[in-house]
């Protein structure tokens, strides 16, 4: 198949890109890495009249240090983040998840922000960014705004981006001291979309008890789902095998996945519990040795 | 044309040759290579970024040409299987019988060439991991691994 005809726009600045988005809004799609959009075009599941290719936009391709965190602009490739020594050190969760995203060819072109704006509920990055409490930086000709990850992802392939808005970058704050992270997913074949995944960020108090926790699952809802019941089980407790077991049961009980051709609802619910336990066990061992 | 509308002429260097074409914006790099430039070594498998048979190098990095618009390659260096005619991987694939039907082979070799240059071919598990974007329906994986291992270790010389 071939894509339907479209008009190809290649702005070279953010302002030009935003002007094009303001003019064409609903009729336009933004092209960054294209690793999700191009198949949709090839199979005519998406047929935009205008394609706004932001790859020539200056200043969006380098990760940079910002006050108290790191900023990943819209054109930073997934492979760049995966291999960045600074980001690997600051957020081990990112390479742990990115290594599970499709294959090297895809990650060479696919961008972090593109995956976030695409908002596939089975994708790794929206889940990880929700666990990291990342902030989306969104711009339009009307101005800029910041959106927390938890508000950004709304539904299947749906974010809080308006038709004229561009996700110009995502900012991740440094993790507090005594924080451990973990990621686990299950996919039938390596590189496939996961049936379910769990990302966890746990900060321990001086006595080893869990002081703060964010546990997020994908594949079980229309957007990344925080496992708040499991989080409550963990808060204030040392993550002993008994506590982790209780969190596993809570996680299993609080998700309400739908079954499909790939897996039944019960199996997905079971997976979320198992993956939560694996993530929490890794985190507990790391924290105990710290 | 308004601001930001690119002149649809694309200049790209393919295997060292400078090529200029004026193609419909929706033409992928894969279709441009095969249908316009006659470089049919690059294969169309799934057309959705799953199989890896259309793998080429753009500025030295392996990408899937089915998911890359030709217009996006303006000013870039593209290397296809035809540009790797003298690469030792080709002889190694024949020596190790690293294919049956051969349809995935151009993508396998281009991907392997990049893998070796990235310095990621030191261990078998790394080769498997970083070749994971190239599927082989004939299941020649052990032989593909053997061919890449031999070239990566320099044993082919």
CATH-defined topology of the largest domain in chain A: Uridine Diphospho-n-acetylenolpyruvylglucosamine Reductase, domain 3
- Apparent shape of chain A: globular
- Kindly provide the name of the CATH class of the largest domain in chain B: Alpha Beta
| Discrete helix count of chain B | 5
Number of strands of chain B: 5
Main beta-sheet annotation of chain A: 5 strands, antiparallel
Form type of chain B: elongated
The ordered H/E elements of chain B are: EEHEEEHHHH
Mean pLDDT value of chain B:
93
Helix-strand pattern of chain A: EHEHEEEHHHHHHEEHEEEEEEEHHH
Could you tell me the strand content of chain B as a percent range? 5-15%
Low-confidence stretches of chain B: none
Secondary structure topology:
The complex is a heterodimer of chains A (290) and B (157).
Chain A: E1 7-9, H1 14-24, E2 28-31, H2 37-42, E3 50-53, E4 64-66, E5 69-73, H3 78-83, H4 85-90, H5 93-98, H6 104-109, H7 112-118, H8 124-131, E6 135-140, E7 143-148, H9 149-152, E8 153-155, E9 158-159, E10 166-173, E11 179-186, E12 196-204, E13 210-218, E14 225-226, H10 228-234, H11 241-254, H12 265-289
Parallel strand pairs in A: 1-3, 2-3
Antiparallel strand pairs in A: 4-5, 5-10, 6-7, 6-10, 8-9, 11-12, 12-13, 13-14
Helix pairs in contact in A: 10-11, 11-12
Chain B: E1 9-14, E2 17-22, H1 29-36, E3 55-58, E4 61-64, E5 77-79, H2 88-95, H3 105-117, H4 124-130, H5 141-153
Parallel strand pairs in B: 1-5
Antiparallel strand pairs in B: 1-2, 3-4, 3-5
Helix pairs in contact in B: 2-5
Provide a descriptive summary of the structure in words.
The complex is a heterodimer of chains A (290) and B (157). Chain A has 290 residues and is of the alpha+beta class. Chain A has three domains: 47 residues, Uridine Diphospho-n-acetylenolpyruvylglucosamine Reductase, domain 2, CATH 3.30.43.10; 110 residues, Uridine Diphospho-n-acetylenolpyruvylglucosamine Reductase, domain 3; 110 residues, Enolase-like, domain 1. Chain A is 37% helix and 25% strand. Chain A is built from twelve helices and 14 strands. In chain A, helix 10 packs antiparallel against helix 11 and helix 11 packs antiparallel against helix 12. The mean pLDDT of chain A is 95. Chain B folds into two domains: 74 residues, Ubiquitin-like (UB roll), CATH 3.10.20; 68 residues, DNA polymerase, domain 1, CATH 1.10.150.120. Chain B has a five-stranded mixed beta sheet, covered by helices on one side. In chain B, strand 1 and strand 2 form a beta hairpin. The mean pLDDT of chain B is 93. Chains A and B meet through strand 1, helix 1, helix 2, strand 3 and helix 6 of A and strand 4 of B.
